[in-house]
Design a protein that fits this description.
The structure is a single chain. The chain has 303 residues and is an alpha+beta fold. The protein is 53% helix and 18% strand. It has 13 helices and 10 strands. Strand 5 and strand 6 form a beta hairpin. The protein is globular. It starts with a helix and ends with a helix.
Length: 303
């Protein structure tokens, strides 16, 4: 089996590829990010389980009803919907005058964004009745124009880095607009305590990158950050929509896949490198997360 077939076995690439086959796709970056144009008489013919994928919908014109886990949500001009991993999305644009965009990206892409506040809500609304909405939509439109340019330039050596920064600026814009119309959110954004939470989340991801080969227990990271495991788990889940343990596991699996594909080491040697007590334990851990054994994965990649 070829390597590109292996990459498409991941949940996020399946969702992104399926979206791209049915919605007008403006551009894609590998299986990590895609930008779509939402317009009338376009629809997804089924519900999609966002297993490892974030989706962001921005409505410029018209009214749109989406379903998240079967529950309808009405979006009008100026509305932004944030659908985190684990949700089921249904989108139908038939017979609706609509203009807007949808971004989809993997949880690993989101991790690199290091967004300063929670985006795990089902729906993040900007009040379309307020004056700032025009300014906000204009700024967002400028960001999307830059994203389009970046996606069209496949020769850019810093394409992903530019894309990450543009998407991060997009989030900051919508968070700021949301806070302006929500006194509670505005107070939270001004609080010094938020910067402390942000620092803990950012430092957590740095520690995971540094120590995931040696440490897979949440307590290790909580101790390093001087917080309880329960509090750390709450902060990470609130900020990203995924539990802290999931991020640790994903880092281990990502590292394991890289080693299986590129290191030339045996499964037994890779189990040792990743600090598993034995090959059998590593095999069970890998198969539980990926669905196949490390040896089968390695054979399929290298054949």
């Amino acid at each position: 089996m070829k390597r590109n077939m292996i990459s498409k076995s991941t949940n996020e690439s399946l969702v992104i590829d399926d979206f791209s086959s049915q919605l007008p796709v403006i551009g894609k970056h590998l299986n990590e990010f895609a930008l779509y144009h939402l317009q009338e008489n376009v629809s997804l013919d089924k519900s999609y389980k966002m297993s490892d994928t974030f989706a962001i919908i921005v409505v410029y014109k018209g009214d749109l009803t989406i379903k998240i886990d079967g529950r309808p949500h009405s979006l009008s001009r100026g509305a932004i919907a944030c659908i985190p991993p684990g949700k089921t999305l249904n989108l139908n644009l038939k017979d609706q005058e609509i203009d807007g965009y949808m971004m989809t990206f993997s949880s690993l892409f989101f991790e690199l964004l290091q967004i300063p506040v929670s985006v795990s809500k089902d729906k993040l609304m900007i009040n379309s009745e307020s004056d700032p909405i025009e300014n906000t939509l204009n700024r967002i439109d400028q960001i999307f124009s830059l994203i389009k340019d970046g996606l069209s330039n496949s020769d850019d050596l810093f394409r992903k880095e530019k894309l990450l920064n543009l998407v991060a600026v997009f989030f900051i814009e919508i968070i700021n607009a949301y806070a302006q119309n929500n006194p509670i959110a505005k107070k939270l954004c001004k609080a010094d305590g938020l910067s402390r939470k942000n620092k803990i989340c950012k430092d957590f991801f740095v520690l995971v990158k540094q120590h995931s080969r040696e440490e897979r227990q949440l307590k290790f990271y909580a101790d390093k950050l001087c917080v309880s495991p329960k509090h750390l788990s709450f902060l990470i889940k609130n900020a990203t929509g995924l539990p802290a343990n999931k991020w640790i596991t994903d880092a281990v699996i990502h590292d394991a896949k890289h080693l299986l594909q590129n290191s030339g080491n045996s499964v037994k040697e890779i189990a040792y490198i990743l600090n598993f007590s034995n090959q059998s334990f590593f095999g069970k851990y890998f198969k539980r997360e990926v669905g196949i054994s490390p040896s089968d994965y390695q054979s399929e990649v290298l054949c």
